[in-house]
Amino acid sequence: MRFLIVLLAAPAAAQVSMDTLNAVAWTQTSVEYRASAMQAWSAARRVLPQALKKKSWTAALEQTGKFKKLPPAIIVDIDETVLDNSPVQARFLLEGDGRYSTKQWEQWTSEAKARPVPGAAEFLKEAASRGVTVFYVSNRGAKENAGTKANLEAHGFPIAAEARGGLGDSVLLREEREGWSGDKSSRRAAVAAHYRVILLCGDDLGDFMPARKPREERDKDAAQYMSWFGERWIVLPNPMYGSWEDTLSGFDRSLTAEQARENKLKALRRD
Predict the structure, then answer these.
(1) Does the residue 4 lie in any domain?
(2) pLDDT in tens, 217-252
(3) Is 164 a domain residue?
(4) Alpha-carbon span 260 to 264, nearest angstrom
(5) N or C: which end of the chain has fewer CB atoms below 10 A?
(6) What is the number of domains present in the chain?
(7) Which of 110, 97, 119 is nearest to 150 (CA)?
(8) What is the pTM of this model?
(9) Partners of 72 in the beta sheet?
(10) DSSP assignments along 216-261, one per residue
(11) Strand partners of residue 210
(12) Bridge partners, 116 (sequence order)
């Protein structure tokens, strides 16, 4: 009887630890993932000339005041937007319990081994050649700065050494300065004070607007800007993690894997 109980319990535990298995496998192996990423950057390439020409064009909700004469900039997220971190997600699955590990993550970023998301480097180099400053607004921590820049530079991503407004270089990480929290609004506002932001590119709603709020409120806020997606806002595919997942658990990261999974099951609809 005791042996039978162990057998019955094992599949549930395996399901919890492997919640992201399909997502990681899809990202690493499918043509569909690469096609989706290329499609996103192709949309950005098509809209770039119009965004540069139309001086009243801005993609940042934080853009205020007179900005028509400001130099153009693009703001991109890093993880799953320009760099593919699916290998560390695989490490979480193969070397741990499948859940996020700060130690494993920081080891990964220090290695500076992430490959570029298909199409990202080519588009951003093209934009830079047309006089656009590219800003990397990421929630990687400040101590990950060296590995992050090394990784970007290894793949030829354009980094401005000295941005306007005393921002330093164009890699803006979480907590590098006072007020630069996980909500990226303050960093977008800092860029928008000195540049006309023509595109926002990311894999999470938080790359475009504040996103850490109840699901109904997120849906309502995003609905106002749906016409911007694929034009001013370029979204990259990332089924592995994101603020959407936190929303389903009420942003409570103290939940066990089983509790988080139960919340996801409750969110499913049958019709």
Answers:
(1) no
(2) 999 999 999 999 999 999 999 999 999 999 999 999
(3) yes
(4) 7
(5) C
(6) 1
(7) 110
(8) 0.93
(9) 196
(10) HHHHHHHHTTGGGBTTTEEE----S--HHHHHHTTT-TTS-HHHHH
(11) none
(12) 83
